[in-house]
Amino acid sequence: MDFTLNENQKMIQNMVKRFVKDKLAPIAADIDKKGEFPKKIVKELGKQGIMGISVPSQWGGSEMDVVSYAIAVEEISRGCASTGVIVSVNNSLVCDPILQYGNDYQKEEFLTPLASGKKLGCFALTEPGAGSDALNQKTVAVKDGDYYIINGSKNFITNASEADIAIVIAVTDKNATKKSRSISAFIVDMKSEGVSIGKIEDKLGIKGASSCSIIFEDVKVPANQLLGNEGDGFKIAMTTLDGGRIGIAAQALGIAQSALDDAVAYSKERKQFNQYIHEFQGIQFMMAEMSTKLEAARLLVYKSAYLKEIKDPNYGTFSAMAKLYAAETASFIATKGIQIHGGYGYTKDYPAERHFRDARITEIYEGTSEIQKIVIARSLLKN
Ligand SMILES: Cc1cc2nc3c(=O)[nH]c(=O)nc-3n(C[C@H](O)[C@H](O)[C@H](O)COP(=O)(O)OP(=O)(O)OC[C@H]3O[C@@H](n4cnc5c(N)ncnc54)[C@H](O)[C@@H]3O)c2cc1C
What we know:
This protein is α+β, with helices and mostly antiparallel strands. Helices cover about 50% and strands about 15% of the residues. A 4-stranded mixed β-sheet has the order 1-4-5-8. Strands 2-3-7-6 form a 4-stranded antiparallel β-sheet, with helices on one face. Strands 9-10 form a two-stranded antiparallel sheet. The relative contact order is 0.12.
């Protein structure tokens, strides 16, 4: 068993680290404060091959392995968690399903500009009545000659307000004998007539990543933009989320690492009772526990990325474990990070409170922690 990163993985880690240190970390607090989508940063990341890391070069990507992808999202999120999710969504939830299920026309037309950073994508599954219960879709797509006509609405969609392309999940056959065969996936141009952006959410954290609703009113989508076959939509959505969870788990790692680094640094600056607070065993124990949990989370995240890379059929169970554990670890570490900062950690003068707000979402999106436990338990009990 080899736990060392290979040369390519080290190369992307160093490259992203440098980018984050020079360009992203210095403006992360500002992105959070203004709630501003980091357009320029996303464009630059696109030029550096970060928007389609594991996509073959033939389709505009960087053709790197899934561990490299996880490392890149981790390092970006270490600087700015909002940028981390923007990158994760484009890579995992948009490029990946087109790569896995798209035909050559779809790869040429949609994947290539998405993976090379010329366009940005979003993934539209959630609806007001279909959150954890993703099968309860109300958005419909009705075949009409060479088109499908889509009507309905989606909410909480990351990147939607900035996106050029959306993967949209909709019901195509409400009478299907199996409900899981009732829905399909489509590649939709966000500039299509009838697509509009609704409410932009005012969120607790990841404030630079816009999350909003999308309304579809008689949107005409060419039939050749159906992804896979009719009835494949649920399978596409679920397998896409299996991979997406690696990105969110990596985002959680980055937030947690930043919270730990800041706490250690602060403990070396702050004096109480005439000594630095890191000299108190109580503070040391907190930091030791934070560091141990973080390392355990990292092992799970990299393992799940590796299993996806080698196409292990059970990688989805591991990505659920990785997301569950890394997300809860990020919240734990960010909470302790505030504790180590004392009252100052509760103010906006230090990034500890931003890490705390950013960490929280990793326990919710792409399946809540409870849904990850369902996925894990189901795999335990299936035989
Ligand atoms: C900032 C943000 C960005 C997002 N980005 C996207 C995106 O890009 N694309 C997209 O499609 N969606 C996105 N989402 C939606 C997200 O995936 C859902 O919010 C999430 O899946 C939970 O759904 P819900 O909010 O409807 O909660 P609900 O499903 O209503 O859950 C409420 C509570 O009930 C629990 N619960 C539900 N069912 C069960 C069960 N069977 N057993 C035990 N407990 C259960 C949940 O764990 C949770 O604690 C985003 C959400 C947010 C907040």
